[in-house]
């Protein structure tokens, strides 16, 4: 029998700075968790569903395609012709810590659970595990929150497990007291608690990690993990059955780290792993997510990254300048590529289509981290600022790509 994990919440379009440009991708805490959970699930008998409402606009189409590409079941994603998905912009400080600006007041997801007969409520019936967050609660009306609470409480009585992350975002609540009351109420019906230290300390004023864990256990949840940033997680209830956690060697952007942690944690628990095993797998993933800009890590797996082909178009008017620059690429750009284990790198041009084909070999062991080091390098960013406007990327490229990655269909070694 399939084990059904249902993530409930709001997908968002994500805007972030990339060199002198803006990049658009997707995020939204529960969508991030659903994606990382679907990526972490290795057992075909575990299905990850996303429960939300989106619009009929271009961004909504694209986020639906993303869910499908990521292997998420979208049978509980409804479409509202009168609303769109929300948007958020990430602002990072020099330590990779971020703050958000939102355009989400009238998003489609806010109208989920608007009536007692909402199909989104009925979806809960088929779930073995439901995951939701404080952000899910913050976007709902008080009545909608009550409906959701009642449905979860009723199904828990027949075996449903509820996983919850308080993910406190003060800007989304009308008052701290409302957030405290609502989040406490949902802790009461939680089985797997996945809070982070900062959110709980901000909201409830706890001074210690043990204070948070003990309060949550006393409220209800008897398992889960407390995320404590680079110090790694603590198990809920507190236990020594856990190792030391390695810190990432570089932090670019912490957005989505906690969400990725939750996704990998839940996938491990659904596969019957222990809490300690789940926390180790979850930390390993989250420690990679912090080295990357944006909530969702590109899908490029190190195993398929040995030989890479990709395409982009050149804007014809920049032909001479582009060739001149590439006849004498800045030394800092070349040394960064070499340090990131890129080798045998060529770019070919086909006129009159002005198609450029890039080929390189990757000889390192962590493609995502090496790629992130390139993206974080100031000289490379300057180089991209010069070369980027001369290029014309394919609209069909994957999220997070500029050059569109190609599939290898033949190779003679
Ligand atoms: N510098 C780091 N090195 C290694 N791992 C890290 C680092 N920072 C965060 N992590 C991992 O990411 C997890 C989540 O981080 P954090 O405690 O900041 O969560 P959060 O604030 O809930 O994140 P989110 O922004 O997704 O809500 C941590 O439990 C840890 O496993
Ligand atoms: O703040 C939100 O609503 C988001 O969901 C945006 C980010 O993806 C999220 O906060 C990361 O946890």
Task: Describe the 3D structure.
This protein has 14 helices and 17 strands. The protein is an alpha/beta fold. The protein has two domains: 3-289, Ribokinase (UDP-N-acetylmuramoyl-L-alanine:D-glutamate ligase), CATH 3.40.1190; 306-405, Alpha-Beta Plaits (2-Layer Sandwich), CATH 3.30.70.100. The strands form three sheets. An eight-stranded mixed beta sheet has the order 5-4-1-8-9-10-11-12, sandwiched between helices. It is globular.
Q: Helices and strands: which structural class?
A: alpha/beta
Hey, roughly how much beta strand do the residues contain? 15-25%
What is the average per-residue confidence, as pLDDT, rounded to a whole number? Answer: 92
The CATH superfamily of the largest domain is known as Ribokinase
Main beta-sheet annotation: 8 strands, mixed
Alpha-carbon distance between the two ends: 44 Å
**Looking at the structure, what is the overall shape?**
globular
Helix content: 25-40%
Give every kind of bound small molecule, once each. adenosine-5'-triphosphate, 2-keto-3-deoxygluconate
Number of distinct beta strands = 17
Number of helices: 14
**CATH fold name of the largest domain, please?**
UDP-N-acetylmuramoyl-L-alanine:D-glutamate ligase
Multimer state: single chain
The CATH class assignment of the largest domain is: Alpha Beta
At CATH level 2, the architecture of the largest domain is 3-Layer(aba) Sandwich
In which order are the strands of the major sheet placed?
Answer: 5-4-1-8-9-10-11-12
Taking all Cα atoms into account, the compactness measure Rg is: 22 Å
Spans where pLDDT lies below 50 across 5 or more residues: none
Number of domains: 2
């Amino acid at each position: 029998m399939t084990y059904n994990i249902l993530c409930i919440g709001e997908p968002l379009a994500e805007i972030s700075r990339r060199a002198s440009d803006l990049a658009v991708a997707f995020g939204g805490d529960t969508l991030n968790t659903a994606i990382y959970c679907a990526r972490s699930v290795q057992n075909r008998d575990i299905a990850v569903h996303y429960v939300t409402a989106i619009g009929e606009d271009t961004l909504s189409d694209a986020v639906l395609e993303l869910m499908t590409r990521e292997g998420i079941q979208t049978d509980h994603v409804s479409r509202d012709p009168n609303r769109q998905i929300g948007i958020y912009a990430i602002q990072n400080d020099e330590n990779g810590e971020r703050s958000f600006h939102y355009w989400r007041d009238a998003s489609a997801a806010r109208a989920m659970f608007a009536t007692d007969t909402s199909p989104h409520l009925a979806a809960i019936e088929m779930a073995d595990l439901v995951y939701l967050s404080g952000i899910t609660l913050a976007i709902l009306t008080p009545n909608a929150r009550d409906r959701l609470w009642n449905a979860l409480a009723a199904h828990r009585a027949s075996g449903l497990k509820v996983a919850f992350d308080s993910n406190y975002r003060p800007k989304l609540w009308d008052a701290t007291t409302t957030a405290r009351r609502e989040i406490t109420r949902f802790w009461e019906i939680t089985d797997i608690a996945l809070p982070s230290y900062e959110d709980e300390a901000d909201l409830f004023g706890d001074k210690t990690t043990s204070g948070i864990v003990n309060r949550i256990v006393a409220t209800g949840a008897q398992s889960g993990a407390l995320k404590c940033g680079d110090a790694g997680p603590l198990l809920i209830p507190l236990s020594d059955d856990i190792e030391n956690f390695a810190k990432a060697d570089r932090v670019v952007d912490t957005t989505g780290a906690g969400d990725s942690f939750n996704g990998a944690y839940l996938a491990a628990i659904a596969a019957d792993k222990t809490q300690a095993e789940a926390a180790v797998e979850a930390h390993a993933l989250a420690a990679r997510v912090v080295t990357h800009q944006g909530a969702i890590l590109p899908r490029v797996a190190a195993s398929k990254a040995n030989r890479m082909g990709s395409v982009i178009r050149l804007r014809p008017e920049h032909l001479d300048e582009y060739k001149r620059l590439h006849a004498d690429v800045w030394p800092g750009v070349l040394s960064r590529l070499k340090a990131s284990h890129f080798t045998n790198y060529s770019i070919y041009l086909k006129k009159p289509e002005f198609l450029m084909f890039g080929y390189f070999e990757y000889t390192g062991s962590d493609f995502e981290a090496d790629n992130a080091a390139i993206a974080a390098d100031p000289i490379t960013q300057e180089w991209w600022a010069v070369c980027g406007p001369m290029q014309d990327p394919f609209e069909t490229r994957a999220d997070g790509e500029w050059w569109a990655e190609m599939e290898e269909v033949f190779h003679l070694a």
